[in-house]
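Reading a protein record of the kind used here takes little practice once its layout is understood. Each number in the token line that follows is a code from a learned vocabulary of backbone shapes. One such record is shown here in full, so that the layout can be seen directly:
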Amino acid sequence: MSTRATYRFVEHTIRHIAEGGVTYETFCVAPGCGEHSTTHEEQTDAQDWALEHTGRTGHDTFRRVFTDHAKVTRADKAAG
């Protein structure tokens, strides 16, 4: 007896969900530094950390990370 697999491709969408919020982090990318802000719910808090870090160290290049939450939804069969 052999088994047989059938694959069916179904379209999905992915969208930001507001109730998940957005978080902000800033990472110093100066060689050998490795410092970073904590995770913030306000973008200005992460930016303020970078400005203060530059004032203390002279480091002026950062990687900014914005994280949101998303939901994947299967496409409606009736729409296809």
In short: The first helix runs from residue 43 to 57. The radius of gyration is 21 Å. The longest strand covers residues 22-28.
